[in-house]
Sequence to fold (247 residues):
Amino acid sequence: MPPRPAAAAVVLAGGSGVRVGQGRNKAYLPVGGRTVVTTSLRAMATLPGLRRLVLVVRGDDVALAERTFASEFADPPVPVELVLGGVTRHGSEERALRHLAPAIRAGSVDVVLIHDAARPLCSPELVAALVQAAAEHGGAVPGLPADDLAAFGADGTVVPLAGRHIRVQTPQAFAARPLLDAYERAVGTGFDGTDTAACVERFSSLQVRFVPGEPQNFKITYPSDVGLADQFLRTGRPAPRRRPRQP
Ligand code: CTP
Ligand code: MG
Fold:
């Protein structure tokens, strides 16, 4: 049995949730009797060996975040540390990593998990599997096989896709020091990836492994996703297959 890695988890709630269309950050909407963000934090907090738990928030949400944890997550295994987010998701990740940098450099954090608050339904088993895979290989991302993808060329013709494809989820887990180095190298380049793996692939030589994701671990993006997440949490029934979306 390999030693248990010392892990830090970062939950990103620094966005605005514009596409959900509720006029407020979707991270604070209720699903299954608790907010989306608390449900995501609790999922990260199941990890054995968790040393640090960081929540990235918008400046406007700080008071709301503090009130929310006081009532929904009064006894976390480690304190929830609030960090102000950036303009983009990448910028929010960078700020969280800068916050963790002293511990990473001191060697007290081996693996960092980065998770979208907007995916409240990932299981403890998935969180643990990702951390183990990252400790072993350098990086790990969850994904679901995608058998309905196509590509098109410059002239608009459909071209065959080679290889097997996945739709990538979060949390994504990486060896802490190379992850921090990758985000430091990205500073000033204008790089803005859609997920953590994109920055790692561009600015590090870490090997990133695929770990089977979970159908219920979808991202709350559109209005109907809120009801699906709520239903899953209340009934335990998997959400219906959401993709491909009908035109
Ligand atoms: N996020 C963040 N900081 C940002 C932008 C996004 O921490 N500047 C977080 C969101 O809070 C979310 C995750 O990244 O948990 C995934 O982003 P997305 O689904 O795009 O959320 P929002 O940006 O909040 O939603 P929208 O794009 O519809 O406004
Ligand atoms: Mg967004």
Observations:
- The pocket of cytidine-5'-triphosphate (ligand 1) is lined by residues 12-19, 26-27, 56, 85-89, 92, 116-118, 219, 221 (CB under 6 Å).
- The chain has a mean pLDDT of 94.
- The first strand starts at residue 7 and ends at 13.
